[in-house]
UniProtKB/TrEMBL annotation:
Main location (coarse class): cytoplasm
Subunit structure: Homodimer which binds Holliday junction (HJ) DNA. The HJ becomes 2-fold symmetrical on binding to RuvC with unstacked arms; it has a different conformation from HJ DNA in complex with RuvA. In the full resolvosome a probable DNA-RuvA(4)-RuvB(12)-RuvC(2) complex forms which resolves the HJ.
Cited PROSITE patterns: RUVC
Protein name: Crossover junction endodeoxyribonuclease RuvC
Record-listed E.C. numbers: 3.1.21.10
CDD domains per UniProt: RuvC
Listed InterPro entries: RNaseH-like_sf (IPR012337), RNaseH_sf (IPR036397), X-over_junc_endoDNase_Mg_BS (IPR020563), X-over_junc_endoDNase_RuvC (IPR002176)
Residues at which Mg(2+) 1 binds: D7, D141
């Protein structure tokens, strides 16, 4: 499975692609950061992010896209920009027909380090170890994007299978109810 991980941000948006299957160490395909100038108006910054994400999706053709779920922060400006960048990432992936999964920061940290409260240095260190890299990806947004992709490879498949089973059972239940109503 190839996963594009996106750590959304208006100034720096981390992008990381890994190939892998649950239970085995994934391999690095690509990592980078899309940057937009803070002095540009928000709408144009979002257009630039969209163009960069389009390039990553067209170049790497992932099986799924994992985006960090935006959570409330004290700085409203920061959370707004992050949410807008996440929305652009989800839009581009959906436009291409790719499934999108949202993972919370604590879920990603727990998957990568074993602790949902791990710091950025711990995440970067474990991403380096898991992908057998010589050094942690810089800046931290790049390492976070790879952590999202790894988390999805390791956890997303199970979550998707569980949701598929629930959906199939609901369909069986609806069919059964329809038969009983006759």
């Amino acid at each position: 499975m190839r996963v594009l991980g996106i750590d959304p941000g208006l100034t720096r948006c981390g992008l990381g692609v890994v190939d892998g299957v649950p239970g085995r160490p994934p391999t690095l395909v690509a990592v980078g950061v899309a940057r937009t100038p803070p002095d540009l108006d928000t709408a144009r910054r979002l257009v630039r992010l969209e163009a960069e994400i389009e390039i990553w999706i067209s170049t790497h053709r992932p099986d799924a896209v994992a985006v960090e779920r935006v959570f409330a922060q004290h700085n409203v400006q920061t959370v707004m920009g992050t949410a807008q960048a996440a929305g652009v990432a989800m839009l581009v992936a959906a436009r291409h027909g790719y499934p999108v999964a949202l993972h919370t920061p604590s879920e990603v940290k727990a998957a990568i380090t074993g602790s949902g409260r791990a710091g950025k240095d711990q995440v970067g260190s474990m991403v380096t170890r898991i992908l057998r890299l010589d050094a942690p990806p810089k800046p931290a947004d790049a390492a976070d994007a790879l952590a999202l992709a790894i988390c999805h490879v390791w956890r997303g498949g199970a979550q998707n299978r569980l949701q598929d089973a629930i959906d199939r059972q609901r369909q069986v239940d609806r069919t059964t109810q329809g038969v009983r109503a006759r």
